[in-house]
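Exercise 7.
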Amino acid sequence: MEKKELLYEGKAKKLYATEDENLVISEFKDDLTAFNGEKKSSEVGKGALNNQISTKLFQLLEEKGIPTHFVAMLDENHMLHKKVDVILIEVIVRNIATGSLTRNLGIKDGTPLPFTLVEFDYKNDELGDPKINDQHALILGLVDFQDELDKLRRMARQVNDILKPYFAEKGLNLVDFKLEFGKDKDGNIILVDEISPDNCRFWDIKSGEKMDKDRFRQGLGGVRVAYEQVLNRILGK
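Solution. The predicted structure, written as tokens, is:
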């Protein structure tokens, strides 16, 4: 499968057409961005690490019954996956309070939540990806029916129920993470994008050390080393 024309370039990936109209190729970039693109840098090898991590996690989720867009990892930086119509809702899943939840609601950083919180953000860079509720999503036409929003929540919780204990076994707290979904050619809602330290927060269970993009956001350094450690734990090294 070969890359054809460039269809889209985002902050972390480039999307290419293939000879099959139902399949596309994502190229994982080494770029790092934070605060809606206001802070930018790059880390050599970051894209390859995210591709490998996402591949392993998509395969795990598929095995557990979660439909995804994943087809194959072509090489270190390229993933073959199904072409979808992306739903412009970022689904945020939170197990422990930190980040915007702490800033906006005053919940002490690091507080375990009494239940898993699922939130929706409007995927719109110009507006800063604002928080939305179900009525906003329907007014904006981001989905057609309330049932689709209910399905996004249900699938997000199912993903959390799989990944939270999976990472706990590997010595990592899955603090929170962002998921994206899309509709395939048959109209089925499936998990898309990536699952990596770029869009997940991982804290070492023993030390509390941050093993994700917060190292870049907060100027802690060691981004690649942290991502490599996450991959190594997934691989059982």
